[in-house]
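Weekly puzzle thread! Below is a chain. First person to post its structure in token form gets bragging rights.
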Amino acid sequence: MNNLLDYDINELTKIIENLGEPKYRAKQLNNAILNGKNYGQNTVLPQSLLEKLQTLGFDMQSVKIYKVFKSKDKTIKFLYKLNDDNIIEGVLMSHVYGRTLCISTQVGCKMNCSFCASGLNFVRNLTAGEILGQIVAVNAYLKGSVSNREITNLVLMGSGEPLDNFDNVVKFLRLVTSEDGFNFSVRNITLSTCGIPSKIEKLADIGLSINLAISLHAPNDEIRRSIMPVAKSFSIESVIEAANYYHTITNRMIYIEYTLIDGVNSSIQNAQELAYLLRNLDCRVNLISLNEVKERGLKGVTDNKTNSFLRELLKNGISATVRRSLGDDIDGACGQLRNKEINGEIDSTMPSSDNELIKADIDTLHNTKKSINRPKSSHTRSYNNNLNSRSKNNRNSGNKFNEKSSFERNQRNGLNKKSSDYQSNNYDKNSRYSRTSNNNSYNKNSYKDDFGKNSRTSKNTRTNAYQRQDYNNKNSRGKKRF
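Winning reply:
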């Protein structure tokens, strides 16, 4: 059957027109399939149109949630069933800033990395609609809609190598970022690849500028080829060159994924070698604890070894962090749960869609979004408390005008003569870059030192901020404020 999720709004419009229906039905159909509706469910579409689509073999749902597993850390693992009965998987992770859905791009994976379960059973590529269908299914499960989605971030880090399914993945990216679709920002999408240099450069040139994560996992070709067969075709230097090209074109920091494997790639010497390899790349290293796969026979490292590796990278000037491991108790790593399902090894004690999760905890999960707001910092609370205390004291004093408060307010605004930044000896009205006072000094030469080479705020933005402040204060001089 033809999956309607494979079509963008223009393609759906052509289908609707060929059926003799008005154009506006295309948008209604698009909203229905993105909201997870299927034949037989209530939509605004006329039954006659639905019957035509069904007769022509169009499918409204190609990905259905088959089983659901909940971790102790609130991570949710999904097994999806496709129309051909193949099984794929995904993971939903909740953070303080929102929800991230990890999605698959293939049924299995060809790359066959020695530490990953995905490469054990490759079957086929997913279509763009099947990749999108995972988002549709989970968003509907969370009681979201296309106009009010419950998923904030996407990571293409599930089963499969996204760049090995390049055309379908690119079409998916265009669909999911479309204003007629879920309208995800490219800043909230991360694609993880084992590193195919030509495809990385091709991805840079399509103009989407999503975040790129490279599964490096080794500091040199010898180690990388022993654990990642794809490295036999591409040298590690060519992968780093492609990453540099991607950064140059998109201005995106590159994320380096590095799984620590005991006795393979986790020594201090390995950390030093990795730091040297990445010395000229604008990147951040994510150190990952190995999710052990019994078929692979590899072991992870201790926390002490992880911290030692991290410290060595930081000491050598490489930005790095240890990724928090989620979903260990539900086989959250790529391919693990799918392989257990295929082999009939699913633990009946794991919470699944057949028992407690579906029946008891959906409302709790749905309300998680309400608690996402960050708590106020201690500085903000202290400031507000001081402000409330001052207001209370002013009211208790019975005075309409508090001289001390007025003086403090004027001093903050630069209105008191003794604290003014604009006295004739200190202020050069023709200077665009300099402002000197008793406490501050900004100038053109010290700009880089103040804000750093990698500051996200441009020099023009900083300069304009000073000009606006100077202008406002200059016009306020001599005026009384009460």
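Puzzle host: Confirmed. Bonus trivia for everyone else. The first strand starts at residue 2 and ends at 3.
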